[in-house]
Amino acid sequence: MIHFIAGVVSSSNYWFIVLRSTAPILLVTLGAVITAQAGIMNMALEGSMLWAALVGVIVSAATGSVWLGLLAGIAASVMVALVLGFFALKLDANAVLSGVALNLVATGGTVFVLFALTGDKGISSSLPSKVLPTLTIPLIKDIPWIGKVVSGQNIIVYIAAISVVAIDFILRRFTVGRRIKATGENLDAAKAAGIDPIKIKFFTLVISGILAGFAGCFLSMGYTSNFTSGIAAGRGYVANAAQVVAGGTAVGSIFAALLFGLTDAMATYLQNIGMMPELIQALPYAVTILGFVVVTWVRDRRENERKRKLFASAATKSATKKEKLHGV
Amino acid sequence: MKILKVMGLLLLSAVLLFPAVAQTPQKANVFLLISGSLGDKGFNDSARASLELIKQKYGANVTVKYTELGTDVAKFAPSLEDAGAEGYDVVFCSNNFNSAVQEVAPRYPKTLYVMYDGWINGDIGNVYSIQYKNSEAGYLAGALAGLMTKYTTDPRINPSNVIGFVGGRDITGINDFFVGYIAGAQKMNSSIKIIYNYVNSFTDTAKAKDQALVQYKSYNADIVYHAAGRAGLGVFDAAVETGKYAIGVDTDQASLFGNEPKKADLILTSTMKRVDLTLFQAFEKYMSGQKLGGQKVYVGAAEGVIAYAPFNKAVPASIKTELEKLQGDIKAGKVTIPSAFTMTADEINKLRDSVNAAK
Amino acid sequence: MSNIKKFFVDRESLAPALVTLFAAIFSLLAGVVLIFIVSKDPVQSTKNFLLAPFLRSYNLYYLLIVMVPITFTGLALCVVYQLRYMSLIVDASLYTGAVVATAIGTLVSLPAGIHPAVAMIASGIVGGLIGLLPAILKIRWRANELVSSLMLNYVFYFLGSFVILYYLRDRSQTILSSMPFKQTFLLPRLIPNTQLHAGFLIAAGFVVLVSIFLYRTRWGYEIRITGANPRFAMYAGIPVTSVILYAHFISGFLGGVGGAVEMSGLYRSFIWQMDPSYAWDGVIVAMLARRNPKFVPLSAAFFAYLRVGADFMSRRGDVAFEFITLLQGMIILILASDKIVNYFKERQLRKQILKNQGGVR
Amino acid sequence: MHTLIRTEKLSKIYPNGTFANKSIEFTVLEGEIHGLVGENGAGKSTLMKMLYGEEQPSAGQILIDEKPVSLASEFDAIKAGIGMVHQHFMLVPSLTAAENLVLGKEPKHPKSRTFDFETAARVTEELSKQYNLPVIAKARVADLSVSMRQKLEILKALYRGARILILDEPTAVLTPQETEELFVELKALRNHGKTIIFISHKLKEIFQLCDRVTVMRDGRMIATHKVAEIDIHQISNEMVGREVRFEVAHPPFAPGAKALEVRDLAFVDDFGIAKLKKVSFALRQNEILGVVGVDGNGQTELVEIITGAQRALAGTVRANGAEITNRSPGYIRHHGIAHIAEDRMTVGTALPASIEQNILADRYWDRKFSSATGFLKSREMSAYADTLVKEFDIRCKSAKQPVASLSGGNMQKVVVAREFTASASILIISQPTRGVDIGAIEYIHSKIMEMRGAAKAILLVSSDLQEVMALSDSLIVMHEGEIVAYFPSAASVTDKELGLYMLGIKRQSDDEIRKVLHE
């Protein structure tokens, strides 16, 4: 068993599949991270993905252009995020409940629309939709092991990678990142500094909508070549769990999404050696919860440790730190 | 459309007014209930196609109607009830309705319930149930795959003797395909190894694609056969992505990808399970006055229900001939094919293990 | 008469009831508008949608049957909503409860009457234990209960179908189906030739039990106080942690029993091909009931009415029944945004005070 | 001098019905330090929130430079040249001082348009030097001392070009040295031409610092004076509204046995500040032990630990001989401790619940109210609630109405009704009359004295010095998480003397302090 796992992990094909199945999760996790940093939980990511997947397929089939499809899909996804923002930020509705409601609207609405357009409920196979291209990267493709993993992936996989950098930039390099952080960490402080928290939250919602749009379009126009009902398959929810594991950073999102992607891909392989498929499929979700719990636990412990240390120094009144900070 | 409805209503009232007259019915209403959804380019679409055949033959003498019910089994019985109460003469439904049919059919003895892809539990006078010899379909696919994987002059075929299988669920109906597939492949290629996965769903195309990708890429499978309903369409996506072959199931799936030649070119053939034909034939019999209620039939290649779809041009003539001969033999009952229905769980496990390419 | 009035009119104020009514009416109107957009014969479709239970008697029975599981999940969610928790784990409780009941219904031999009762208790306990998990994760590790319950729902769905598939499956069936339940396990049908089963009465009984529990016992009292203000509850000496735990156990218990009742009442073997996800329906039932169990039958009936109408209409016409999921989402959105109503309430209050104070000084 | 800010008939009513500001006519001149005094709940903070755009006036208007302005948000206020230093600092702990300073108006790299941290840090240091307000630009705010955070807040306002600085009780969190330092800095700012509004309820500070002072009471503006022209008594009269506030009949003091004993209690808050450092004292029956101190010197934490809302890092608490350290509030209540929480809105009551539920929340389990099988006796419950409503004069339509619908005073009476009938031997009373009308204050005070007469041991914590002095038999003074003085007889000490201890200027010897343990 261990031998088998080691064999799988060392194969480039495994990592190819990992990257592929991690990409959509990574995209939505980034979306969940950036909204969470601004202090709003985007529970509607699942719905965003569903609408993006459907609208992408419909528009690409209607126009014959995969790029227009992608654009329309992203627009649909952003729309969902904006509606969430409207209810949660303008009408003061509970953000989580509104998100859940929007997901329901999406689950039913996508099938409803698909049926109204094609007469089919389950799959868009009657629509001649297009597929996003895969890319072969010139030099990298020739590197022995890495080339097989990194090159030849769907364009969205690379967009996911670029998104990590982009979100990292937004959060750490751009001024808006500080405003996002201020809004999420101390809303009153942000307001007192003249920042409009609602604007910031809307901004993050739009970003998360774009990211979920990419992810949704990937699912129906790359990952597979059709929209199928419920195609998001809970990835939006997984993202909200992974967001916690990510610890609020773009780089953390990679690890969090990989946690799911690695086990998800491994599950396919473990099935091959006769592990019970149903049990194996529970694994990625179980691992995500585990990661979720471990991360919060470690964070709490670290916090307590910090407090204890501070007390030790305060009690002994050596207070070197205090002096240093008071002094100057 | 409206005229049709009015006519349907007229017909309906005619049927309701003169039930006794219709010894050999001249007119009939048919209702097809679909579990899951259409668009699978297979099983369910095939069932819907039967309605077309019926319309073609009987024209204005029949009204046909279908509805997609999804996976919520709670609504199956009320839907059947509805069909019965509205006086439909013939109701088509799949084996997923088994318990609902048991519940409802006795209440509407005038309606004939045609249940396909499984036998009804118990004996009910107005239920006609049809079981298919899935294992024969599997056997056909296995034979093709077993031969093709040796045909290494084709650049898409690698030297390893590994083929793949993606099943919907680890259940008897699917394992029947699989058992036949193994037997057929072994018959044609004694050193065959098979890599297999179950999607655990008949709808999750993405998962099926993931699994097929693993089979193609990590285990060097040249050909993957699927029996996973709508989810199985993901296998074709994987075939396109890796440039390898796949075998379709239930209908001539290659012909359904007219707008996607890349996909169609990689589907070597499909093992057809003519749900459309069996339902049509059942209806013909009904119209000719035969009593079908209470019967359970087991149909396969002999009845022309299970057969190869036209072969892809990638299949060399020599293989084609050999397979056509095989198909004839099966039709004539000259080949013994194991069936999952007669095997214990252990036997199935052992069989799968013995050919598992991952072990 | 005054008692009846007292039953329906919320003590605190009428506003929430009005919002609820508004949401219900709005959803029906939105439904009709949608029908007119997509249907070729909108009048007939609308008629089928709105009048289904009155057009055909079996639709009425179907409505009552549909009410059973969503009454259970609605009650279960009422209990957690009283705590202002958002856990959706009742989905896993119900599914796993059905699996446990299937095991007992197929493998164990017991006398009639006792057999389903034992199954319900066992399913309830298993469901209750599952219900505890998100609460424990929240209390111990501050993990958001909605997210963790959604993840756990997947885990338990896969575990449950694993058990069905490998231990309880009827191998002679082509499809996924458990072995048939033993006769002793089945609940009686209330009306011959219909599927309306005794589980309906059990659900009704649980409505009464949960109402009494929440509003007439000290444990329910603790739950309500804790929900109203957990810091206050802690301060007043209420063992908040254990309150949260037993409330979640009870919620899961209700889910588990609901699963068992569905199995022994409606079905003859376990034939769920997928998770029926009754918890999502429970969300809206509990919200429409304003987390008060005594209103659950009413809101479950409303929801079942929507669903039966949508099914009937979609079979008869050209509108997909999925549109009720759409309506469901809209109802939640409206109910979640009752801040709009609060806003008007506050504005009125402010005006009143200004008026009372006159010109000030 | 030029009138910088003027308000006309400015009124504010909160959604819950609180009438916080009534037709305020408030004027600030350019270049002055203007004091704003009043007791808790007098409406100072509300007035300032309106000036800073955080709250919108219900009526009236604000004029700056004699021009009407609409301050719809903080952003508008900043644009109008107003800066505010809140009592609770508006800082983002995980960001650095420099990042906090420029938040909302960040410098960017000219080319990449990314955040320019180096410039931010440089600007911070320059401003810091210019106004002589030292901060460490590159340190995270979480690591800064309280006074440095305050300076950062002032710099933040200045960075945004504030002409007018509002400081909301800035000295509440400072040590005396820090306070003095701050005053020097503020005067320097005035000399730079800035206008400062200084909010406080400490009159001494007003006289040290301000040019003019405005007094508020009960949401109204009472008067504005030049500080040089009035004396402290006049202001204090205006603040209180009558000559003598408290005259409580004090029966002779005859302390009984030790009821509550606290030893070596230590606690560190989330920011790593040691809020309690080895606090020890004992409380006896028949005794009202007052706890005196400037807000934020550990009183809140002390009460929270005794009543089980917080866990102590070290130390023990014993009630009637039983150890209750770090036990659950329920356990502690069972051991004879009742508690009037300082914050009745978030802790002391459950606002959406009914008066009845609030009154019975600590005793619903009693056999009087619920049967052995767990069923509630609703008739007994409502009868009981009705009697308490009557006995404690809670003004309401019915005991079934939610507490949220009551006025502050009546809300507090609900708390008092519950806690004083809890059959506890020890009462922990925090801020019993904060934000409560005069009538209710007198009533609550008389009830407290009644409790003392009933042989209870009472720990009284209040930031209202007069209240503590009038009610208490003996006093302890807390400063920076420590007990710095113990007075066995409250009558023998003056408020001036207490002030020296409260501000940390004086400290008793350890031996004297230890007497509070009565060993």
CATH class division of chain C: Mainly Alpha
Structural class of chain B: alpha/beta
- CATH architecture verdict of the largest domain in chain B: 3-Layer(aba) Sandwich
* CATH level-four homologous superfamily name of the largest domain in chain B: Response regulator
Overview of this structure, please?
The complex is a heterotetramer of chains A (328), B (359), C (361) and D (519). With 328 residues, chain A is mainly α. Helices cover 77% and strands 0% of the residues of chain A. In chain A, helix 2 (12-37) crosses helix 8 (175-185), helix 7 crosses helix 8 and helix 7 (155-173) packs antiparallel against helix 12 (250-272). Chain A starts with a helix and ends with a helix. Residues 314-328 of chain A have low confidence and may be disordered. Chain B is α/β, with parallel strands linked by helices and 359 residues long. Chain B folds into two domains: 2-133 and 275-302, 3-Layer(aba) Sandwich (Rossmann fold); 134-273 and 306-355, Response regulator (Rossmann fold, 3-Layer(aba) Sandwich). Chain B contains twelve helices and twelve strands. In chain C, helix 4 packs parallel to helix 8, helix 5 packs across helix 11 and helix 6 (114-141) packs antiparallel against helix 7 (145-168). In chain C, 63% of the residues are buried. Chain D has three domains: 3-240, P-loop containing nucleotide triphosphate hydrolases (Rossmann fold, 3-Layer(aba) Sandwich); 245-336 and 425-519, P-loop containing nucleotide triphosphate hydrolases (Rossmann fold, 3-Layer(aba) Sandwich); 353-423, no CATH class. Helix content of chain D is 33%, strand content 24%. In chain D, a hairpin with a 2-residue loop joins strand 20 and strand 21 (482-487). In chain D, helix 14 (408-420) runs parallel beside helix 15 (438-453). Chain D is globular, with a radius of gyration of 25 Å. Chain A binds chain C through residues 41, 43, 87, 91-94, 96-98, 100-109, 111-112, 115-116, 121, 234, 237-238, 240-241, 244, 276, 278-279, 281-282, 285-286, 288-289, 292-293, 296-297, 300, and chain C through 34, 38, 86, 137, 141-144, 146-148, 150-152, 154-155, 157-159, 161-162, 165-166, 280, 283, 320, 322-333, 336-337, 339-340.
List the helices and strands and how they pair.
The complex is a heterotetramer of chains A (328), B (359), C (361) and D (519).
Chain A: H1 2-9, H2 12-37, H3 45-63, H4 66-90, H5 95-118, H6 144-150, H7 155-173, H8 175-185, H9 187-192, H10 197-223, H11 235-246, H12 250-272, H13 277-316, H14 320-326
Helix pairs in contact in A: 2-6, 2-7, 2-8, 2-10, 2-11, 2-12, 3-4, 3-5, 3-10, 3-11, 4-5, 4-10, 7-8, 7-10, 7-12, 8-10, 11-12, 11-13, 12-13
Chain B: H1 2-17, E1 28-34, H2 43-58, E2 62-68, H3 76-85, E3 90-94, H4 98-104, E4 112-116, E5 127-132, H5 134-148, E6 162-167, H6 172-188, E7 193-198, H7 205-218, E8 223-227, H8 233-242, E9 245-250, H9 261-266, E10 267-273, H10 275-287, E11 296-299, E12 306-308, H11 317-331, H12 345-355
Parallel strand pairs in B: 1-2, 1-3, 3-4, 4-5, 5-11, 6-7, 6-8, 8-9, 9-10
Antiparallel strand pairs in B: 10-12
Chain D: E1 3-13, E2 19-24, E3 27-29, E4 33-37, H1 44-51, E5 59-64, E6 67-69, H2 74-79, E7 82-85, H3 97-102, H4 117-130, H5 146-159, E8 164-168, H6 176-191, E9 195-200, H7 203-209, E10 212-217, E11 220-226, H8 232-240, E12 258-268, E13 274-284, E14 288-292, H9 299-307, E15 314-319, E16 322-323, H10 329-334, E17 337-340, H11 344-348, H12 355-360, H13 378-391, H14 408-420, E18 426-430, H15 438-453, E19 457-461, H16 465-471, E20 474-479, E21 482-487, H17 495-502, H18 510-514
Parallel strand pairs in D: 4-9, 4-10, 7-8, 8-9, 14-19, 14-20, 17-18, 18-19
Antiparallel strand pairs in D: 1-2, 1-3, 1-5, 5-6, 10-11, 12-13, 12-15, 15-16, 20-21
